[in-house]
Amino acid sequence: MGQTLTGLLTSVRAMAARPGRPTGGPDPCLLPALRICGDHLAALAASGPLTDARRTRLIASIGALTTACSTPGADGFDALLRTGQQALDTGGEAESRLALALAEEAITVRARSKGAWRLRGRALDALGRGEEAITAYERHLTLQQNPAASHDVARRIATLRAAGDRIDEALALFPDESTSAADTAARHTDAAPRSDASRPAAGLSRHLPAAEARTAFAALVRRRTAERGAADPAVRRLAALYTEHRRLSERDPMADPLLGGAEPIGVPALRRLVAGRTVCLVADTPLTAEREQRAGSPLAALIEGYDIVVRCDALRHAAPTARTDLHALTLRGDTPWNGPPWDRRAGTRLVFGDPLAHWRLALRSRLVPGAQDRVGDASLRRPLHDPALLGGEADDGSPPTTAYAVLRLLDFLGTPARVDLIGFDGPAALPPREREWAGARALDTNDAGTRITLR
């Protein structure tokens, strides 16, 4: 990887040094962005061997940007935005600063790009510069023609403002603790480091970067509690404001925390739900979907005869109106909370994923109020890794399919009257290890392999 990184760095610097694009060279408008990427690659090369997969993907994204900038007809601007997004997904302050620098270059090239303004807002947000992030987010919303596509941006603006409001209320209780916006700006824009004696006194301001604001807020609570005691009404309100501020710093509030009245269910409730009922898992394939949607289709009649119809993951072929009583999903990737909302109507939605923090954030970000009546709780989030559900059997390390996780869960529950697989043949067949498990329990296979009865 080190050799590849060195070669890419050489290529990026060579392109960034070219004066123009008369014969297929880099777009002059994107040369500053290439220089910024070159500087970042140089810092990575100097930091030693790379073992972080996310940084490896960032390097690949920079390589794609380099190729796009030198390829006639390629859209280097879109590649620039993708590189900025990948930098944010990588995490880390250096990568957030790279994303911010690329966003600012993108805005210089296209001042009315909603994607560039959103990238700038996200980068500033990641760096803890909430007030500046709000300004960038608002510019994005002004340019966005489809408000529904930026619901998360509007929610983030509301969160940042709410966090700032908690600081403002705290300063109304103790106005002498304030740090002015001018002092804050001076402390963070001085070219030369200042001695501790010459710095403005550490105080609280909504203009402070998020980490500094949390530190100053905590110090204020400790100081006032020591001075007045925890029973003082102003101190009690201050502590409540600090708690709310910390919560808002950690995550955005949910518009509907109860998800339209959805009921959280665990293993006992799911066991009761499927007890004595017939269950089928339907594969999401073009052939199965076409046969199910065909008028008078025998397959449609077959599926309709089951008590519970289970579908898995992102349904790309099944019609939106296709019946789904239980929808199971497995979280994939480093940032599973970033993705389309789970808005398909289902009676029960089970989300499998690990670690717990990622699972919780994904549910907060992607569940849609009213789209489900029941949601699986944390006891159902990793059925193939829970010794209580599988008896601690060995795992060969290969990621299981969602359908297999559902089958093993139903097998553990032991209460369905019947479990059938429909359409899991040909390209949709389970991997060998999972197919072997299902084959050992199959009681019947008919309809040319369309239906496999396990119980």
What is shown here, in short?
The chain has helices spanning 2-16, 31-46, 53-70, 76-90, 93-109, 114-126, 130-143, 151-173, 181-189, 210-228, 233-250, 267-274, 286-293, 298-304, 356-366, 387-390, 402-413, 432-441, and strands spanning 263-265, 278-282, 308-312, 326-330, 346-352, 372-376, 418-422, 444-446, 451-453. The chain is an alpha/beta fold and 455 residues long. The chain has three domains: 2-145, Alpha Horseshoe (Serine Threonine Protein Phosphatase 5, Tetratricopeptide repeat), CATH 1.25.40.10; 159-250, no CATH class; 260-453, no CATH class.
Describe the structure.
It is a single chain. The chain is of the alpha/beta class. It folds into 3 domains: 2-145, Tetratricopeptide repeat domain (Serine Threonine Protein Phosphatase 5, Tetratricopeptide repeat), CATH 1.25.40.10; 159-250, no CATH class; 260-453, no CATH class. The chain has helices spanning 2-16, 31-46, 53-70, 76-90, 93-109, 114-126, 130-143, 151-173, 181-189, 210-228, 233-250, 267-274, 286-293, 298-304, 356-366, 387-390, 402-413, 432-441, and strands at 263-265, 278-282, 308-312, 326-330, 346-352, 372-376, 418-422, 444-446, 451-453. It has a 9-stranded mixed beta sheet. α15 links the parallel β5 (346-352) and β6. The longest helix has 23 residues, at 151-173.
